[in-house]
Automatic annotation (TrEMBL):
<feature type="domain" description="Aminotransferase class I/classII large">
    <location>
        <begin position="49"/>
        <end position="354"/>
    </location>
</feature>
<dbReference type="InterPro" id="IPR015422">
    <property type="entry name" value="PyrdxlP-dep_Trfase_small"/>
</dbReference>
<protein>
    <submittedName>
        <fullName>Aminotransferase class I/II-fold pyridoxal phosphate-dependent enzyme</fullName>
    </submittedName>
</protein>
<dbReference type="GO" id="GO:0008483">
    <property type="term" value="F:transaminase activity"/>
</dbReference>
<dbReference type="InterPro" id="IPR015421">
    <property type="entry name" value="PyrdxlP-dep_Trfase_major"/>
</dbReference>
<keyword id="KW-0032">Aminotransferase</keyword>
<dbReference type="InterPro" id="IPR004839">
    <property type="entry name" value="Aminotransferase_I/II_large"/>
</dbReference>
<keyword id="KW-0808">Transferase</keyword>
<dbReference type="GO" id="GO:0030170">
    <property type="term" value="F:pyridoxal phosphate binding"/>
</dbReference>
<dbReference type="InterPro" id="IPR015424">
    <property type="entry name" value="PyrdxlP-dep_Trfase"/>
</dbReference>
<dbReference type="Pfam" id="PF00155">
    <property type="entry name" value="Aminotran_1_2"/>
</dbReference>
Length: 377
């Protein structure tokens, strides 16, 4: 199994760097803050929870509430996982075998590429930076083979924040339907679009072989709960995934399920708070990058809480990011973390996050680094 380079990098720096400026989630709450949002019944249920095994599928009331976030689905269309990563792993292992072919959008979250590559032949299709990271649908259509089983997308995209237009989405679904292909859609940043008009419908709602992945970690801001899910109209596939989960986590954490239910029952309030924070932080990033036009090319993402600016200064983005974290404690993700085995990806980018609080402190230290190293970069 290949190293998960992002997690290897984070295992070294995430809790060591003083200024975590590349976080992929929105600022979380304390347990006390979340419980303050709970109803009396929800608080009672949490405090009196029996700490035994839970249902492999997920608690019935949690699945019902998750289903309410979709337009056409019920609890029978939902299977819970221990975070989104377990869902990705299970889906790739269940859907693909050595005789299949998969297509993966690049750049992407590494697991979307690495896991299929362990199983079958995989083709990468690029997002086009010169076209605001639009998916090259012509290239994708040409990549389809008779044995293509799965196309994997991530919208809003990690790391670019790109979304898809309605026309591109409809064309993609038409290609999948015509060729009887599953469409795996990582939707963990959905609901954080800067322009609500760019919000895509959830694939599980609109395509019979669509698989929607989501989690309370990213848009909601509760990664410590480790509650994710897959939604699909294909109940036979869900049953196979449930059987596979028996070999992984078996079931989810009972306290986490109760807390995730409180999150989702208060989703509008939580999302409003998160979007407000993103708007404030994005404004700070806009001002920062406007001050350094000779070092960076900046464009705001369509959605999510991360962006992927271009480094145009001297030297490499790798040396820039490593000096920044080693000497000044400011953590960014250099482009090497998003390099693909399938095709060439940009090498002059870095991921910066704007979902956490205290962004001003991190940017102040970033400015100090640039002032102290003026002329080097």
């Amino acid at each position: 199994m290949r190293n998960f380079e992002l997690e290897v990098f984070f295992s070294q720096w995430e809790f060591k760097a003083k200024y975590h400026m590349t976080a992929s989630d929105v600022e979380s709450m304390s347990l006390k803050e979340l419980l303050n949002l709970a109803s009396d019944q929800e608080r009672h249920d949490f405090e009196n929870l029996w700490l035994g095994y839970t249902e492999t599928w997920g608690a019935p009331d949690l699945r019902n509430t998750i289903a309410e976030t979709y337009d056409t689905l019920s609890a029978e269309n939902i299977l819970c996982f221990a975070g989104a990563e377990e869902g990705i792993y299970a889906a790739m292992r269940v859907l693909l075998d050595k005789n299949d072919h998969a297509i993966v959008v690049v750049p992407n979250y590494q697991a979307a590429e690495t896991l299929p590559l362990e199983i079958c032949e995989v083709t990468g299709v690029a997002l086009q930076p010169e076209k605001n990271w639009r998916l090259d649908l012509e290239c994708l259509a040409e990549a389809i083979r008779p044995n293509t089983k799965l196309i994997s997308i991530n919208v809003p995209n990690n790391p670019t924040g790109a979304t898809m237009s309605s026309s591109d989405l409809n064309e993609l679904i038409s290609l999948c339907r015509k060729n009887n292909i599953y469409l795996f859609s990582d939707e963990v940043y959905r609901l954080l679009e800067l322009d609500e008009a760019k919000r895509m419908p959830q694939i599980a709602d609109i395509y019979e072989k669509g698989i929607s992945l989501n989690v309370v970690s990213k848009a909601y801001g509760f990664p410590g709960l480790r509650i994710g899910w897959i939604a699909t109209q294909d109940k036979a596939l869900l049953l196979r995934l449930e059987r596979f989960k028996h070999y992984l986590s078996i079931c989810n954490s009972a306290p986490s399920e109760r807390l995730a239910l409180i999150v989702l029952n208060n989703r509008e309030r939580i999302l409003a708070r998160n979007r407000s924070l993103l708007r404030e932080n994005l404004s700070e990033l806009e001002k920062f990058f406007a001050d350094y036009p000779s070092l960076f090319e900046w464009a705001a993402p369509d959605g999510g809480c991360i962006a992927y600016p271009k480094y145009i200064g001297r030297g490499t983005v790798e040396s820039f990011c490593h000096k920044l974290v080693n000497e000044y404690g400011v953590l960014l993700l250099p482009a090497s973390i998003y390099q693909s085995e399938l095709l060439d990806a940009p090498i002059d980018r870095f991921r910066i996050g704007f979902g956490r609080s205290k962004i001003k402190e991190g940017l102040s230290q970033f400015r100090r680094f640039l002032a102290d190293n003026h002329g080097e970069f």
